Structure formats: C-alpha cells, structure tokens
Amino acid sequence: MLNTAVLTSVASIGILAVAGAWSRPVDRLGWRPVPSGLQRALTDCRGPLYNRYDEGGYLIWFVREKKVFIDSRQDPFPADMVQSHIRLEISGDYSEVFSRYHIGCALAAEGSPLAARLTSDGWHPASTGGAWTVFSREMNTP
C-alpha cells in the first residue's frame, strides 16, 4: 500500500511538472524554435501560407494562428500535392502551385531555389529568422 501511494505521488508530481513546463516556456533556457520576428511575420501574412514539408510540424506547434500548406503527416495531403511541392522545392518554379492554392506569402529556406526565385520575381522579404525568410507579395505595413 505504501509503495502504491509513493508511486502515485511521484507520478503525479512528474505529470504536473511536465505540464507546467510545456504550458509556460522558461525564458532562461533561451529555446526559440521559431524566432519572434519570424513568428510575427508568419502571423501577419496575408493569404494562405506556403511552407516546406519539413517545417510544417514546427509551424503547427509554434505558430498556431497560421494554417500550414503541408507538413509531415502523409494522410491529409493528396499525392499530386506532395509531388508538386517536391518539384517546386527542387526547381524553384512556384507559379503553378502558388496560383492553384492562392498563396499570399511563403516561408523559404535561405539559399533555396524558391528563395532565389521569389527574390528575383520581386516578392518582399518580410522577415528573416535563422535559416528561413518569409516572403510576401505586398510590403507589410505596420
């Protein structure tokens, strides 16, 4: 009986500690998976967002206000959409995909073919953070 009470108490304390840590990030840890400027640019983005497959999960968790274009869950996305995304990331040719999905802004990896193409086509870099840049069709005004 004593062992059960101790185990239950320790498990409860552990669950509460983990829940508390997840609900309120500890600033002193300095862990910012999505920098605040980048998060703000994504939240302020007008129109649907384009993002890479690799960043979709981060965005779902850390930028909850913005619906992602694609993420690493396979089931919700049709095969032709995933294949179009792969071709876009390899070539940088975004026009067909952006037109089909009415994309208003894009999260692109720095140095990627997409980032180079968006820059050359006059898209505005709204914010950069880490290895990413948010591009928009229009200049964001405060």
Task: Give a written overview of the molecule.
The protein has one domain. 46% of the residues lie in helices and 13% in strands. By secondary structure, the chain is an alpha+beta fold. The radius of gyration is 20 Å and the shape is elongated. The protein is built from six helices and four strands; from the N terminus they run ααβαααβαββ. The mean pLDDT is 86. The longest helix is centred in the N-terminal third of the chain and has 22 residues, at 2-23. 23% of the residues are buried. It has a four-stranded mixed sheet with strand order 1-2-4-3. Strand 3 and strand 4 (132-136) form a beta hairpin.
In short:
This protein has helices spanning 2-23, 36-44, 56-62, 79-91, 95-101, 113-120, and strands at residues 49-50, 105-109, 124-129, 132-136.
Largest sheet: 4 strands, mixed
SSE class: alpha+beta
Helical content band: 40-55%
* N/C terminus separation: 63 Å
Question: H/E series, N to C?
Answer: HHEHHHEHEE
Strand proportion: 5-15%
Number of helices: 6
C-alpha Rg, in Å? 20 Å
- Overall spatial form: elongated
The overall average pLDDT, rounded, is 86
Number of strands: 4
> What order do the strands of the largest sheet run in, or round the barrel if closed?
1-2-4-3
Number of domains: 1
**Poorly predicted ranges (pLDDT <50, ≥5 residues)?**
none
